[in-house]
Amino acid sequence: MSFQAGILNIGGFLAGHQIVSHVTGFATNFGSELSKGINAWGLLLVPVFFLLGSMVSGYFVDLRIKLKKKPKYYITFTLMFLLICSIWIMGFLGVFGPFGNYDEVTSHALLIILCFTCGLQNGTISTVSRSIVRTTHLTGVTTDLGLGIVRILYRNKLQDRIIDEGKANIMRMGIIFFFTLGAVVGGYLFSRFQYHGFLLPVLISGGLLWLMIYFQVIKAPKV
């Protein structure tokens, strides 16, 4: 999923000229544009949809876990799949305009859908990992990796106060690697195939959706 997030981020950047899941970046750009006398309120609206995506994930996954109910992962994965499909189809049909040509309305529309999708993904995986793993951005993961490396270096002094820190660091490095790999692969795909580059995350999210349906619906124990 970090690989998919890397693709979505580079796709949003090349098509809409904004980093998709970096809420801090949107706030920075908003301040910069506003200081130049440019109407930037539409730009500030985009990361709100990242929040809304996280809230939808919270309703179907986190809240149900807190209420001792079965989380409905298949719903959040269905939404992610449909949203990425819609981006691919609308891009192909020209709804967002020419790829890479910035237009305030169409670019913001594209970024809104991408932000909502990343919010869904991040919220779902955050809940599954008990707020340890973030897959759509690297700031927190890199910080945790830095802390984890120090804990490993001084594990003799910490003794049994660190548990599975080595495995956690491997996971963090994996997230950073696959996010970066997704950005590299996505950069090639979008540069060459433009909106058709979104077909790869469509296939990835479709495969993950099938796994969720298989294990949560088809193979679920009958009550």
- Give the DSSP E fraction (strand runs of 2 or more residues): under 5%
Helix and strand content put the structural class at mainly alpha
Number of helices: 9
- Element-by-element helix/strand order: HHHHHHHHH
Please report the total strand number as a whole number.
0
Q: Give the C-alpha Rg.
A: 19 Å
Biggest sheet, open or closed, and with what strands and sense?
none
Mean pLDDT: 84
Overall shape: globular
| Portion of residues within helices | over 70%
Distance between the termini: 31 Å
Integer count of domains: 1
Residue stretches low in confidence (pLDDT < 50, at least 5 long) are none
Search tags:
223 residues; mainly alpha; 9 helices; 75% helix; 0% strand; globular
Question: What does the model show?
Answer:
This protein is 75% helix and 0% strand. The protein has one domain. The protein has helices spanning 2-16, 23-35, 41-66, 73-92, 104-128, 139-153, 155-158, 165-193, 199-218. The radius of gyration is 19 Å and the shape is globular. The protein is mainly alpha-helical and 223 residues long.
Summarize the structure.
With 223 residues, the protein is mainly alpha-helical. The chain has helices spanning 2-16, 23-35, 41-66, 73-92, 104-128, 139-153, 155-158, 165-193, 199-218.
Secondary-structure map:
Blueprint: H1 2-16, H2 23-35, H3 41-66, H4 73-92, H5 104-128, H6 139-153, H7 155-158, H8 165-193, H9 199-218
Helix pairs in contact: 1-5, 1-8, 1-9, 2-3, 3-5, 4-5, 4-9, 6-8
